Amino acid sequence: MTFTTATFENSPTDQPTMEQDPVSDNVPLKDESSNELPLGKDIQNIINTARTSPAPARGAWLLSGLTAVLMWASFTPLDFGPLGWVCLVPLLLLVRIPRKTRLMYTAIYCSGFLFTLASFQWMRLGDPSMYVAWVALAIYVACFFPVFVLLTRTAVHRFHVPLPAAAPLMWVGLEYMRAYLLTGFSWYYIGHTQYRWIELIQISDITGAYGVSFLVVMLAACFADLLPASLMKAAKLLPANQTPEEKNLDQIGLKQVVQTAVCLSLFFAVLGYGYVRRSQAAFVDGPRTALIQGNFPTSVKHDPNAWQSIYLKHLFLTGVAVRNQPDLIIWPETMFRWPLIEPNGKTSQELQTIAPEIPLEKWNEPSARKLLSNMSKEANAALVIGLDTIAAGDTKVDHFNSALFVRPDYGISSRYDKIHRVPFGEYLPLRDTLPFLQYFTPYGAAFGIDPGKSAANFKFQNWTFSPVICFEDTVPHLVRSVVNQSSAANPENKPIDCLVNLTNDGWFHGSSELDQHLITAAFRCVENRTPMVRAVNTGVSAVIDGDGMIVEPDFFIDGDNKGRTSFVDPKTGRWNKSMNAVIIDTIPLDNRTSLYTKYGDWFAGACCFCALFVFFMALLTRKRTPAPVKS
């Protein structure tokens, strides 16, 4: 998106003022009979320059920097959610002033980059090559901050939309765009800061998490609109020579009273809706589930010499879990290190043509299948196991990141192949066009997995589960699609009972990524009124109910024998991470339905339409500076 702020904003420096001769700049400064400037013209130019000079840049740097710090503190690792309600107020003051300051958008972008760089620092922990991806993602996401201010200023000052309406519309519209652009990045939505306020986030089953973001930004804008002009003067946001509009910023009239009343009414309506929806829940006990959590860094996972120890640790934890007679046992993503080989009915000749490097006997090797079937029988429980799948395709060998479903009465029953791949982590975009990008990945030239085709149903007894793998649980529209596809495949369109997430967060060494991943996943449960269980290598494994509540499990087993009695540290109130553990609980099945599941992102889509409408209308209606008149 390449445009300048002049495209949208016509400050007094862009157009002639009432006191300024529209063509004065085209009059020669020198008299034809004299080498000196006409004194009157020189004085008039000085006066006009003083009247139209913007405020200095330091106020923009101060306020945008304050927003960056407060916003960072509202997310993990500090995780002080109440700051989410005020962190955008300083930035919104830069929207409220009629004339932008010097270097305002530069200051906003740099401050946004400061926030994104600090928040995404966990990305660098995966591999030294990921430093480039960390900085690149921070550069990209930081662009949304000046674009937000630019669009909101355009809506407020060009089209006279009230700030408490314009700001949340533009913010949510941009969050929605971010969920799709460049494969999507649905992390760090401002609404995620409120995950602890369970009643408030219930609106997500209508609007998605975007509705919570809308409410937070709306109240921040309402508060920013009520702040006195003296505060903006103290922050050096207003120039020395003020226009009548700038002098009237202190006036609180009927408009401010009405919009404050509307904002508070919406807030209490959303809160009331949350209490009503929670009272309608009649959770029913579902399958007793054991979540097996190992503690293996990814560097170990890719070492074939460590595969045996990884298997034995998970097998030991599974044995501990079996004592509590679970119905379902879940291993994290790719923690069963031997791949599942699928010839898919190909003949020996076809297999040799497709993959001459793979010995024919490997295609029919039954040991992994037998091992998994025996595990399920011995546990007398269904298994959901994360592993790699090597499958014979029509022209090549396909490699999938899979969740395998194994039943004690049937053996291997079904398989789900991950649909949403992580760029640079699971595939290389533009591999053939830009081969140098290979240096920014932690793998060799042949790395990458193929995308799965569709959702899967895992059925056992009277229950149906739908798996999602790794970061798929952070993508709102993807999880909704999985829920709908799986429900449609059930007899009589019966909704699925539970989402099962298999994750390997061993890349990130116990950083804040583990916490933020769990928080983001909780919103998927509210949106679809479907509980979720998460088995996560290194943590945080958890059971989440249909209200988005991360529940305390019935049993917690410390696999490291360090005396832990809960997955929450009682001293800090934070989740324990980087440990071997077992979590056993009964899944709380939800009887409610969701409008979000049925209608999708209608709300965020409408906000996105408004943002694009403002953008294109500003382009179409922009005022052009008159062309110079030649003498």
Automatic annotation (TrEMBL):
Tagged with keyword Isomerase: no
A single GO cellular-component term on record: plasma membrane
Every CN hydrolase domain range: 287-570
Keyword Metal-binding set for record: no
GO terms under biological process: lipoprotein biosynthetic process
Coiled-coil features, chain-numbered ranges: none
Region ranges (Disordered): 1-37
Protein name: Apolipoprotein N-acyltransferase
Taxonomic source organism: Gimesia alba
